[in-house]
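TL;DR need structure tokens for one chain.
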Amino acid sequence: MSMEDVLVRATVGDARVYAVTTTHLTQQMNEIHQCSPLAAAALGRTAAGALMLAATMKDGEAVTLRFKGNGPLGQVMADARDYTVRGFVEHPSVMLPLKNGKLDVGGGVGHEGVLIVTRCPEKGAPFNGYALLKSGEIADDLTKYLYVSEQTPSSVALGVLVDKDGSIAVSGGYFVQPLPGADEHCLEILENNVLTLPYVTELLRSGHSPEDMIRLVGKGLAVDIMDRHPVSFHCSCSREGVEHMLTGLPDKEFASMLEDPRTEVKCQYCGRTYLFSQDEMKALSRVKAESTHTAATPAETRK
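>> reply
TL;DR here they are.
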């Protein structure tokens, strides 16, 4: 795994093209969640897709991808912000037989279900977009989502190659997003280039960098590399965040936790464990009661 994890943005003719390598961060998530090769491939593809969608947004804004299919992997989720990403697979130990010699990510995710994309703008409330799953293969479903829910006829290609020992050999992808009013001839060239390119894993395995992939996508067009950013795994969980989550639980659920001598909360993204003693939970109970009382008390009316 010699190639660094980076995301590159470029303009190619009348389109924006993003390309990313995520081998190291995918391996990090692979180790955290002890993934099967199938789960690692699904999670790596989802994380790379989230990073490229986040790169289309302003600094500080975030995007979350949730694949909720009927396959045995369960929910596959990743969220990205400022060139960092985290994610998880609901059932990371699941493995299926190979399909045509390749990992059956579509079967693992499921051919029925929904992709939910949550965008968190810098100002205002988060908003969701939805699309029914097409194949469960992640890239196909992202492409469909962008066309159906955001009226953006884009092309997404993602790939994760897992070695025989279960480690990540290569991981990454590219994303083509035509600009408004793009020239039809330019779009035809891009489409033909994308259709004739090898798989992402083949490109990365042979040493192609994100810039190389962009130039292949844009063959025959003017290519302008705009910028290059390192990308990494990062989990924003904290004890304060967990406390906030606990005080927001329904009263009945929180009350049952108060009976335990110790409460353990494990972050589903990074595996970090937060421990709370019974006394600490009782203190949170008082905070919870005060916040509930404050919310229920009508605001004082000025005379």
